[in-house]
Amino acid sequence: MSKGPGLFSDIGKKPKDLLTKDYIADQKFTVSTFAGPGVALTSTAVKNGGLSTGDVAALYKYRNATFDVKVDTESNISTTVTFTEILPSTKTISTFKLPDFNSGKLEVQYFHDHATITAAAALKQSPVLDVSATFGTPTIAFGAEAGFETKSGSFTKYTAGVSVTKPEFSASIILGDKGDTIRASYLHHLDQLKKTAVVGEIIRKLSSNENTVTVGGLFAVDDLTVVKAKLNNYGKLGAVLQHEVIPKSLLTISGEIDTKALEKNPRFGLAIALKP
To answer: Quick check: helix, strand or coil at residue 248?
Structure first.
């Protein structure tokens, strides 16, 4: 694939991941293993309050095709089939879920040195069409996306964004919610190994004049342990401790408290992921 500006969904992804990824509020246990050449099996159990769920997934890779099948505790079967290079510089992704026969979706991505274009359509009688385009370079990218509902003839979404990415920082501005929300974010790495970083995000809702400001950080205690924390202007304080118990196997502990209402019960999460 071309090393171009990336997908539109990549704009603002790095700061967002640092502020959201691994901040969990449930108990999760995941075991992964290899069942043969190109075949990976993953079993996941999740407990959220008094509700327990789980799924089993199988991932199979063969040449330029990847098949990902997941079965959950309610006997729903989710399948994702990905083909690369059917046509030069393209990726084709097909998803569907059984027994919901109207859940199918087909997406085609085209990658170029200075542009990335995606088109996706729901496989049903009155599909919703999603189109996005990104132009620029791996350093500076401009992009937009839109969703169109064929049945009503109306736009379901339109979003635009710009990002600047360098080895030491990533900055982005996104205009979303049909022009009603502005999201600006900035991530800065404090060392060359990217083991220490600070991040900030401002979200402004134009219709209500509401601002949400979140700051956070990442610090590697050692080669096996990482600590993350975040705080917003509403007093929500979150923290994550992640430790590599054995190679490729992670223990994650997460917590969140409301510093302006300490009488409320804090939220805690625990995840264990075992990989071969």
So the answer is: coil
